[in-house]
Write a structure and sequence with these properties.
Radius of gyration: 19 Å
CATH class of the largest domain: Alpha Beta
Structural class: alpha/beta
CATH architecture of the largest domain: 3-Layer(aba) Sandwich
Strand content: 5-15%
Helix content: 40-55%
Distance between the termini: 34 Å
Strand order of the largest sheet: 1-11-8-7-5-6
CATH topology of the largest domain: Rossmann fold
Shape: globular
Number of strands: 11
Largest sheet: 6 strands, parallel
């Protein structure tokens, strides 16, 4: 029997609606809109599209969008000065510096300059530390979106066996921390893991975030497991798909015949990333303004 398809697009739409309602009530109480500042350095086409989408969705949710586009040859010192200015701007609740940055800039240094209380991307080392020790802070948007989809599908995750394939600071490590927090038994696997298919096969939850097209095959997956595919890979162009087919890290055709539920690519995890960014921004706005947000409000 084919797996249930986890519709990230629909879930993200619902999350944006909830953000919009909170943004409206925040504006009434605070006397201002919640604000997200996005900084883009250079003219990378994919980054430009992404930043434009973030701006549109921020405004659509009733929040203020502040976009700063800098030339590719901007000195690092100028970028750091802009971030410092945004740190102290009371109209800005969240700051996101679009990655990757040009080669002459130190990404870690730039991220470290962001005020952790405005770090809605969840990349600051203090944000990572807060997650690791169970304190309140911001979590990277993609793994938090994955967790939301898992909890929506499975409810209580306690005691489940989870395997995260990938160990990046952006997805793999925070994903593992989030699952640990939900009392899952967590294994982080990666390209050097011995007997990787065997390790994956014991999991009730599989999160694939390794960046290898269609790597996870049907015989890797335990029947009935829930599979979250974070991968976004473009296959070589063909006559049928001149731009190349977009696929995940999971062989969807095979795994969807074995798994209990699976996210498609596109339309699974992808739409969740910006929706969670907006969610983090409205949470930041409440915290920065000293307005209490009810537990479970979003």
């Amino acid at each position: 029997m084919a797996a249930e398809i986890i519709d990230g697009k629909a879930f993200a739409e619902g999350l944006r609606e909830r953000v919009g309602k909170l943004a409206a009530s925040f504006e009434k109480e605070a006397g201002r809109k919640a604000g997200l500042a996005v900084v883009l350095v250079g003219e990378d086409p994919a980054s430009q599209i992404y930043v434009r989408n973030k701006g549109k969705q921020t405004v659509a949710c009733g929040m203020a969008s502040f976009e700063h586009v800098l030339p590719v040859d901007t000195p690092e010192a100028d970028l750091l000065a802009l971030v410092e200015k945004l740190n102290t701007d009371p109209a800005v609740d969240g700051i996101l510096v679009q990655l990757p940055l040009p080669d002459h800039m130190d990404e870690q240094k730039v991220i470290a300059t962001i005020n952790p209380d405005k770090d809605v991307d969840g990349f600051h080392v203090i944000s990572a530390g807060r997650l690791a020790v169970g304190q309140k802070g911001f979590v990277a948007c993609t793994p938090l979106g994955c967790l939301m989809l898992l909890k929506d599908r499975l409810g209580e995750l306690s005691g489940l066996d989870a395997v995260v394939i990938g160990r990046s600071n952006i997805v793999g490590k925070p994903m593992a921390q989030l699952l640990l927090k939900e009392s899952c038994t967590v294994t982080i696997a990666h390209s050097r893991t011995r007997n990787l298919p065997e390790v994956v096969r014991r999991a009730d939850i599989v999160v694939a975030a390794v960046g290898r097209p269609e790597m996870v095959k049907g015989d890797w997956v335990k029947p009935g497991a829930t599979v979250i595919d974070v991968g976004m890979n473009r296959l070589p162009p063909t006559e049928e798909k001149p731009k190349g087919k977009l696929v995940g890290d999971v062989d969807f055709a095979e795994v969807s015949q074995v798994a209990g539920a699976i996210t498609p690519v596109p339309g699974g995890v992808g739409p969740m990333t910006i929706a969670v960014l907006l969610r983090n921004t409205i949470v930041a706005a409440h915290r920065n303004a000293g307005i209490e947000l009810a537990e479970g409000a979003i």
